[in-house]
Amino acid sequence: MTTPTRNALTDVAGLRVGHATRVGEGGWLTGTTVVLAPEGGMTAAVDVRGGGPGTKETDALDPRNVVRRIDAVTLTGGSAYGLDAASGVMAWLEEQGRGVRVGAGPREVVPVVPAACVFDLGRGGEFGARPDAATGRAAVEAAAASAPGSPVAEGSVGAGTGAVIGGLKGGVGTASTVLDSGVTVAALVVANAAGSAVDPATGALYGRFFDPGSAPEQGGGPYPSPQTHAQAQARIARAREEAAGQASPPLNTTLAVVASDALLTRSQAQKLAGTSHDGIARAVRPVHLLNDGDTVFAVSTGTRPIDEDNPLALNDILAAGADMVTRAIVRAVLAAESVRGPGGTFLSYRDLYGS
Asked: Of 110, 140, 141, 255, which alpha carbon lies 20 to 30 A from 158's?
């Protein structure tokens, strides 16, 4: 396997990513991220394992149902209120004539826009400051305006703007790889979990144990020094004391879009969505709790056939999907920046431990 230059979801040719970010005055700390398909759409599936999901149009992705291809996936802050962002994405797609055709007119389509939300209500200080249809439209327009193969912004942007993971600042992360077969597999995550990404005994990120580039012999050295870890724990304790009575409830969710250019059936895409949850479980502990809404979408642009005569040809793609989710969570945590505001203090891993 090799890592493409961008190491991002957009390494799957044809996919574009757009963020809309709202921060600052008015108590804002939230946003929306849209993954836009190439013209003609993409095969998609979903697997939900959290106990408190907030989703839209996920039933349409069941392989037993009629919708064969979709044009966009929406990831958003704002909990269930933020799902309104998908309406803005639908409106933009309708104007482009993209969606399930239901008539002869150029705009006689019904766009199917699966969406999932994370809980970030009140983290900017104002409970009512959350994404709406205009936020979703801004995100899809940003995706459409981006050049093919553009880098994807990570950290406290888009749906990851108000993300928190185990009490630390979370955010958006992305990663990709090219398999020996030439197939590209990539992931984009919004890391926002009730569980922690950090080993409490050492301060190491759980996910770095699964990243070969982080091994000590590769110069990665995933373990912080005991002194650094002790200082970080003391700072976290002080931040919690300062936020006593102010902290928001631990209602969270980790979202992911796993993508490939392999030609996958809808059932194969659903299997990829399911196994990719293993990538969350490697990077976050505990995971899939009742107050999480962990949801993974799998999408396929279908430009690269796989060996239909080999029933195990999918295995490498399944394994890579989980690996990319783990790597993307690590990147999200490392890219996040500390936030101090009326909604609370959320320290970043980098602020506490360095890079």
From this structure: 110
